[in-house]
Structure formats: C-alpha cells, structure tokens
Write a structure and sequence with these properties.
With 688 residues, the chain is α/β, with parallel strands linked by helices. The chain is built from 19 helices and 27 strands. The radius of gyration is 27 Å and the shape is globular. About 3% of the residues have low confidence.
C-alpha cells in the first residue's frame, strides 16, 4: 500500500490517485452495510476498472519509459517511479481483494448459497454438470494444442483461458499442453445447479470445463489432466494512421485490429501452475521477462461477478428505485411545449432518461420540426436513441449526428451505428483532426409561425439508456435563445471543419474553458482580498490540470473557501498549511457512479451556476470539444446547490481526502446523511 506524506509536494501522482479511486470501489465490496450480491458487483467493477487501467494507463507509462520521456510537471515523480508505485499499490489491493472475496463467499453460506468447484460435486450434481456440458458447452470449445500454436496475438485479452497439461497413463512420452478458451459469452460465467434440501449451489464455468476435460480429449486417449486459469492484458492505446488517402472510418477500423494484436502488459496465472507449463504458455504468447507476470489465484476475470446470480431474494440486492416524474413535464404531454415554458433540469438516475427518448420521438413525428442534430459518444445496444434518429430521418427530418469514433472501447460499436444511421439517410460526421468530441448535445429546429425556434439538451453524461440508470448525471433542456443559438454554432463548428467561432454564453473547449474558470476564480480571490464573501463549490470526475490547481491553491491562500467533490483522479493536495488549508475534498462512491459535473461560484453574491461535460484535466480542456453551459433558472440553481450541499454533508459514503490519500470515511456529528438516498428524497419532495 502506497502511503505518502505529501506535505512538501504540490500534486498527487495521477496514477496512484486513480488507484485510490478504485480502492474506494473495493471498500464498497468490503462494506457490510451493502447487500452481498451488490458487494460481489463492486468486486466485478473493481476488476474491470483495473483491467482498463492496465490497458490504457500502464500501457502509456510503459511507452513513455521506453521512449525515455521525462515528466516535466512540477513536483511530479518520474515515470519509472510512478510505475513502480503503481505495481506496489496494485499488489496490495489484489491481496485485499482476495480476503474480501473469501469473506463474501463465506457469508453467502449463511443464506444457504454455496459456490462449489468440480471436486465438490456429488454424483447427482456431476450428472447434471455433464449433461449441461454436452448440451451447452462442448460444441463451443476449440482447444489449441500448444506445440502447434503459432500466433499468440490472435488470443483475446477480454477472455479467460485454461492452460492444460495432458497426460496418458499408457504412454510415457513427454506431457502435451493445450489452451482452451472459456466460452463465457455463450453460457455466462456461473451455472446454477439443482437445489438440494433448501441449499442452493453455483459452479463457475471454468470448473464445469475442468470436470468434463476427459470428454474434450477422449479421442486422443489422454486420461489425466491438470488445468489452470490464466488471462492477460494488452496495450489498448490506438496508433492512428495519418494516411490522408484513407477515410477516418478505415483508419479507425485498422487501428482496432492493431489493438487486438497489441503487446501483453500483464499476464496473470494460477500460482499452482507448474513451471514447465507456465514457461510453455508465456513463450507462445511472447510474454517476456520485462512484462508483468503475476501470480494469482484459481480464478480470474472477476469482472464477470457483476453478473453473479441472486439466489437469495431481495435482501441480497439493493431495493428497486422508481424514477421520479418531473413536475414540469405532465405525463403524456408534449415535452417540447414544456421546454418552451421554462428551462428543465433532469437528474439521472433519480429521474428517467426516457424523457430524452420521448423528446426525440416527439421531434421525429412533429410536422413542424425541420431538423435534429446530436452528438454521440457512447450509446446502448440496442439503442432507442438510434431508433428515434432513424425514425426522424424516415419522417423527412434533416438529421445530423456527430459520431465520435474515438470513444475508447466503444469504437467498434460507433462504427456500426455510423453505418446504420447512414443507411437510413442520416448525415454522419466523424472527426475533427486532433480532437475528440465529448460534448453531450441535442438541437431541435422547429418552425413556429414565421420564425424558427430551437430546443436544446446540454448534459454531463452520455445518451445511453443503460448507464443513465447507473450514473448520476444532469441534463438541461432549454429554449433559451442565448444558449440554443450557440449550440447551433457548435454544430456549425463540426460541419465547417473546425473553423474557430466566438461564443458569448457557452464555454467551449478547447477555446476558452480553462481561462474562463481562471477568471471566475480570480474574481473570488479579489473579493476575498476585500474581505467580501468568497467561495467555490465544484463537483467533477477528475481534477489534474496544473494551472487550475495552482489557481485554486492561490485562492485558498487568499482565504477563499473551496469545497470539491472529485470522484476519481485528484492531483490537488488539500489541507496543506499555507497552500491549501481552505480546500476540502471529498470522494463519494455508492450505488450509482457519481458522473455529473457542476460548478458554483459565489461571484460577490450574484451566484453563477454551470454544468459541463468537461473535467478539469488537460485532455478535456485542450484536446476535446466540450461544452459548459450556464444555468439561469433560479429554481434549477437552487436544486443544484441543495444537491451539492447534501453531498458535502454525506457522512456514510463520502471519504475525506487527506495528504496521505488514506480513503478514510468522512465523519461529522450530524445525523446520518447518505447523499444518494437523501438526494432522491429531496427530489421526490420537490417533484411529487
């Protein structure tokens, strides 16, 4: 465990800060206040996060080290030191993971739920497993004999494998080796066995394959087997070809093929695997000594535990939460008409994302709507958003979609949706050189009388039905001309091949976001110097931009009260005397992923409110098209401020960041406040 006293440093290390976020996820798995199945899901989330961390961040560190790059940011450790600390912290968290996992599995037995392996099957269960294997699994298995294996790059780092030693008692020849991919996409990872006297049993698919190994190799007369799980993680950073003769769609498709053949960064294996088998497998996969070869337990790919079956009823999961209606959108009424009357703010998942689907559906059928424009970064599959856009095109609307093909790990899906939209007559825009489009925008143009009126959505989260029920986000629906006309200018930016435009109301990256907020912080500093009220409340996913951090430090030194809610990476170090003693930072990890970005400035009493798609990170400020919108409606302003205050008072799921990054729960003497529960209660009071 990395535990550093940063009293002389100005910034936390970026990678360790992210790992500390993932440790908070692990804490939720360890929190006995959470239902057991939810704790298993948190283990799955932790594991999935860690895989992506290796595929992207560790890959980047390795590249920087190989290229002998230096880290020029002030007070930041070298890339080699960062990677070493990463591995120490990862190993500590993995050990903690194993203890938590064993504890949860043990607690499941109190509910008569047993996770058993192939050696624990009784005769009746064995018969069931063999029948299941023959019906569902056997036809999906395609073992690879290791001696014949040539292209290790063809194996997927999304899968798990069994490395098998094959033996024959009638033949003393040297043991043979094979690799078998576990077909989790066909059968899932967990097989529920027949109940017996009130006891419920689950077996992992890996163990089903182990149990039936003799049937897989029967024709080759092998009769003794030893099988061990392994997995590996590839470098997932894309190398983008700059060939101008190719379309961006072609370039991305080729880059994705390269990703699937990227070098292995981490190889995790069952520590019981023999040295000879380990050497044979790593040699074929070209995993060198410089790669990270990690001893593990019997099972890998714990991300599958996000889908662990619930055999114990409602007490093992969170209670269902019914999304709240919005008081300004009467049921069954026109959403466009409601937006025309006043600005509307939707708070996901407390309110339903279906309002956005219904808005697009209404626009697709409304004879007065002339056009629909939208940015897409990630969408669900299947997607009602895509269906609504296709329907709008079929109904004669001019539909334009900016589809970001560089949305990490959604590139293939977005290529697929691009083709579907184009087939339906939608105009699809793909890329702005050197930038990602991360803004969350919808613009509807409607003929009303002799004029056209615009209706816009500006949000903090993706247009994704599934994640909108799991991520806490905000979305503004407005017909305010100051905003909608500038949303139209953002789309002009996309269609005019990135011709810089001037914005008066919206704040758009990479043109003005950093400088805009520096000016607002400077105003708070000026007021503090005059002994006027001066404060800042900010909620973001990540805070790592050095210039903005330094400006917050300056504000703290001048007496500005700064309260930050940062879910993930936070390089700012709070609580250092003479530097950041007036800065409080909390992190909240709970049932929903805190994903919204909200900023409030005292502004001399004339408070300013904003929501944004942009975190305060270099990539969001300099390398992406992001949109921040002011919030003018006073009712919405009050809601945002009240919600942030609820979160700042959370004393159940909030952690207070200190200069050791110890992830201690925030405690105060107030009555218990759990922000996500209390936010739902607050919104229910307002909207019902």
């Amino acid at each position: 465990m990395i535990k550093l006293n940063n009293s002389k440093a100005r910034y936390f290390d970026r990678e360790i800060s992210w790992l500390k976020f993932n440790e908070r996820v692990l804490q939720e798995a360890d929190d006995e206040r959470n239902p057991l199945n939810e704790r298993l899901k948190f283990l799955g989330i932790f594991s999935n996060n860690l895989d992506e961390f290796f595929r992207v961040r560790v890959a980047t560190l390795r590249r920087l080290i190989e290229l002998k790059k230096k880290n020029y940011q002030e007070d930041v450790i070298t890339f080699e030191q960062s990677l070493n600390q990463v591995m120490v912290e990862v190993n500590y968290q993995q050990q903690k993971f194993g203890i938590i996992y064993e504890n949860i599995i043990k607690q499941l037995t109190k509910h008569n739920i047993y996770l058993i392996n192939e050696k624990e099957l009784d005769e009746e269960q064995g018969t069931y497993v063999r029948s299941y294997f023959r019906d569902k699994i056997r036809h999906c298995l395609f073992p690879i004999m290791l001696k014949n294996f040539r292209a290790g790059t063809h194996l997927s780092d999304q899968a798990i494998y069994l490395a098998v030693t094959l033996m024959r008692t009638d033949n003393a020849e040297k043991d043979a080796y094979a690799i078998i991919e576990i077909p989790t996409s066909v059968a899932g990872r967990f097989i529920v066995l027949p109940e017996d006297n009130g006891k419920k049993y689950i077996i992992i698919l890996d163990d089903v394959v182990r149990y039936c190994m003799d049937e897989i190799f029967a024709r080759f007369k092998y009769d003794n087997f030893k099988a061990f799980t392994f997995k590996f993680t590839r470098d997932a950073e894309l190398d983008i070809d700059n060939d101008v003769s190719k379309s961006f769609l072609e370039i991305m498709a080729e880059s994705l093929i390269q990703r699937k053949r990227g070098s292995a960064l981490r190889f995790v294996y069952d520590r019981e695997m023999s040295e000879d088998l380990l050497k044979a497998v790593t040699s074929k996969l070209k995993v060198s000594a410089t790669d990270n070869i990690v001893e593990g337990g019997r099972y890998h790919n714990f991300k599958d535990y996000m889908g662990f079956p619930n055999l114990g009823g409602s007490e093992l999961e969170y209670n269902d939460v019914t999304p709240l209606p919005h008081k300004d959108i009467p049921e069954g009424s026109s959403i466009i008409r409601a937006i025309r009357k006043k600005d509307i703010m939707l708070h996901y998942p407390y309110q339903s994302f279906q309002y956005i689907v219904d808005l697009l559906r209404e626009a697709s059928m409304d004879p007065k709507v002339r056009s629909v424009k939208m940015t897409i970064y990630r969408v669900a599959k299947p997607s009602n958003i895509i269906n609504a856009l296709i329907n709008a095109a079929r109904n004669g609307k001019r539909v334009t979609v900016f589809m970001e093909l560089q949305a990490r790990f959604d590139e293939e899906a977005n290529i697929y949706w691009s083709e579907k939209l184009q087939e339906a007559g939608v105009k699809v825009l793909h890329t702005i050189p050197g930038l990602k489009v991360h803004s969350k925008l919808i613009l509807i143009k409607r003929k009303e009388g002799a004029d056209y009126k615009y209706y816009a959505n500006i949000g903090t989260g993706n247009f994704h039905e599934k994640t909108a029920s799991l991520y806490a986000d905000e979305a503004l629906l407005t017909a305010n001309k100051r905003i909608t006309q500038e949303v139209d200018k953002v789309f002009d930016l996309f269609e005019a091949s990135y011709r810089p435009l001037r914005f008066r109301t919206l704040i758009v990256s990479p043109f003005s976001t950093r400088n805009f907020f520096i000016r607002l912080i400077n105003f708070e500093i000026a007021n503090a110097k005059l002994n006027k009220e001066a404060w800042i409340k900010i909620k973001l996913n990540g805070l790592s931009d050095a210039r903005l951090i330094n400006k917050l430090y300056q504000a703290s030194q001048e007496g500005v009260c700064i309260e930050l809610i940062i879910r993930g990476i936070c390089k700012l170090i709070p609580g250092i005397k003479g530097l950041s003693e007036n800065i409080k930072v909390i992190n909240i990890v709970d049932r929903y992923l805190e994903h919204s970005r909200v900023l409030i400035f005292c502004n001399g009493g004339d408070e300013k409110y904003f929501i944004t798609s942009a975190d305060w990170m270099v990539r969001n400020l300099d390398n992406r098209i992001e949109v921040t919108t002011p919030i003018f409606d006073q009712d919405i302003q009050k809601e945002l401020k009240d919600i942030l205050n609820i979160q700042l008072q959370d004393n159940i799921k909030a952690r207070l960041l200190d200069n050791y990054m110890t992830n201690n729960y925030y405690q105060n003497k107030m009555e218990p406040i759990r922000a996500q529960v209390d936010t739902y209660t607050y919104l229910r009071r307002i909207h019902q």
